[in-house]
Amino acid sequence: MGYVVLWMSSWSCQYCTLVNSNANSVCAACGATRDTTSKLTSLLPKAVIKPISDVANAIIDVLNDSSASVSKQLNRFLPASTAIRPSSSYPDLPSYFTSPAGSSSSDFIISPDSHSNSLDWICRKCSRANSDSLTFCEQCNERKSIGEAHFVLPLAQFPGVLQGSLLTFCLGLTFQRYRNGPSTSSGYSMPNIYGKMAAGDDMSTLCSEVMAEVERHDRENAAAAYNSIIDMCRQFKTTFIDDGFPHTPKSIGDLHSDDEGAIFGRVPKTFIWLRPEQMYTKDGRAWPWTVFRDPRSSDIEQGCLGDCWLLSAMALIAERPDVLEHILLTKEYSHFGVYQVRLCIDGQWKIVLVDDFFPCRVESRSIAFADGRKNQLWVPLIEKALAKQLGSYARLRAGRTIEGLATLTGAPVEVVSLEDETDKDVRWARILSAREAGFIMGCSCGAGKRHVNPKDFAKNGLLARHAYSILDVVQEKEHRLLRLRNPWGSFVWKGKWSNKWPGWPKDMKQKLLSGEPSTGTFWISYDDFLTHFDAIDIAKIRSYQGWRELRIPVQCGGNFIDSDKAIRILIEEPTEVCFTLFQSGARRVQDQVDLLMCLHMVSPAGTIGELVYRSARKLEAFVSTGDVFLRSGHYIVICHSFTTLGTRKIQGCLAIHSSKPIFADILPCPASMFTDSLVQLVLKEGRIHKSLTGVFPRYVTEDFSGLLLMIDNVLEDMWVHAKVECSNSHNLLSSRGALDVADSIPPLSRQILIILTHFESTQSFAVEHQLIVRVSPYPALADFAIGGGAFRVGTDSHSPSFGCKAIEQLHSRKALFVP
């Protein structure tokens, strides 16, 4: 896909991104009216980039053959909430939930006529009531939002939604925002369906918006708190001191606990906290203090803290001022020392308030950690905001650029491994495509699976276990080159295509090395890049394409409890979408547990249907499906984790990014739904063991960080006794609490026998399992039980017995056929 800068001869539709002739006032594809009121208001320079063509839109046009105006979104049919029922189990299990009396499964229509005789819409800027036929407010000329709500939805007309305790989110439509629930005249209020998962959240708010709208609302809400603090400082004639991140050693943390503590020289034993005008910098007083001064990647200098992963991400963001300006909500120097930074922490947007006191060296009074050249504050402010959110500066040590990109942009992120067996030409095309799409990219050097010698890397001007920024990707004839930057601002590549390499062709040198070289930047060939680097991190910034986002708190793992939730997805239009599951408080490797997210169709019977997509199962801070394409229909998302099975719950967030509007319902999710989800995973991806007639063992190991083993018994009158021996496996946890297990599976039934989970993520794991199967007319395992002898007599049907209720529920038997 190619991209161009739009000039006055054409305009791009803000909804479907089609490039239209300047002579047309409405979009030729979707019928949306041209926006003539937009103005660029930014303290930072930016280029407006739009795609020449949108493959997803083209596919949608073919499937739907529709040119209806986007403004008619509210008149679409939305099916009422339908109960998700469990598949039959052995023995009988209760249904997931019972539809309340009075609920209806018939379709309903959200239509202005069904709620109010008035078709007026309320201007969000001046509150004037305008005719529905008007696109712009008669009083202030503010444009009507797509899907602008004309009315308060009277939920009494939708008992299936309200009484079923289902909260519907809408991705992409702007509804009225309620502070205390819907109008009291309706007699209803929105219930808090999250319970403990969202303690403190205002669940009466029914609103999901495009990314730009989400950022705008955050900015408006933050402004009130900012102004309140400023007023207080003026009243008492003082500067702001943030007691939430005190100027004490606790906020610094332990920088001497490991080798990641010091990068440049010795870490100071003591620090002094100073404001900008009290500090000494390399630029002295040549530049007055400011937040931004034409920010560039070369402005970033790393201090004595090992957070190159974050600074590399900042260097990439510096090349995209349209992204950077949305991170720093306070864009001008504050004489009161009050700043607000917007970060995406564990999948949730948060506004972090900080003061302008920074840790400095006592002797030189220079800033000890990250610094911004030309006396710019945006670099240390972002670093401090994230340190505050994590608890201390020390917790910023060690990480990958992908983590920094996810935190700074909130966009879907992807890792491209350079160590797998992918064809290098295919990989190059992928990198080049990401660059052309305007995505942000970083890379890691010498930090993969292969053994590296840091001294050998240093001879070539590279740092092992270090993060770099990818600033450009070009192909000149047969030459494939990448332009990288070291966040240190120095120590660069010394091989072919380096800045001082004598073999540069004259034309390429004039094109790629013209002007004064930026600090820490260098060119490197694609082949040398593959030799020394192990992964590329990509942040898919697509907010300018009108993409939408929805973020929903979730919990997984632990015991199965009544507050467990599943997320039902309704797709009205075919759309490109990316699902990302985050776990909270998992920056450190030792805090990370396994995560797995499965997306299923809802079956015609209302049960968990076929697995459509899933994430890889990993012990990481987040997992993702990557970009996938979904047709119209009902889907359901199930989030799994087994490391803490039977113990504590894992709190997290599901982030959904899509090119078209998406609706989501929060449903009760008992244990049976989790098991059904895993069953569908095995049925789709499982490899079949050769076994006895009528017995079908299946197992999954690929992209699973362990093992999932299930057996189907299709025999009508015989029990299957199965023994699984995994004692030769290494660095794995068992869902049964033992590596060797045995079970008795009834006729026409199935059971998940064991789930193995990677334990210590910093070390490799090995899965080795042996399966022994026999058939018997009796349910008792007898001598087949673990530790049983040839003459053992017993009635056990599971060996060892289930240690807790959660284990029993996960491994419950399921009937193969529903009467």
UniProtKB/TrEMBL annotation:
Organism ancestry: Eukaryota, Metazoa, Ecdysozoa, Nematoda, Chromadorea
Active site: C308, H466, N486
Listed GO CC annotations: cytoplasm
Name by which UniProt lists this protein: Calpain-15
PANTHER family (UniProt xref): CALPAIN, CALPAIN-15
Residues annotated as domain Calpain catalytic: 239-542
Domain RanBP2-type per the UniProt entry, residue ranges: 7-36
Keywords attached to this entry: Hydrolase, Metal-binding, Phosphoprotein, Protease, Repeat, Thiol protease, Zinc, Zinc-finger
Cross-referenced CDD domains: CysPc
Any one of the GO BP annotations: proteolysis
UniProt record similarity statement: Belongs to the peptidase C2 family.
GO molecular function, one term: calcium-dependent cysteine-type endopeptidase activity
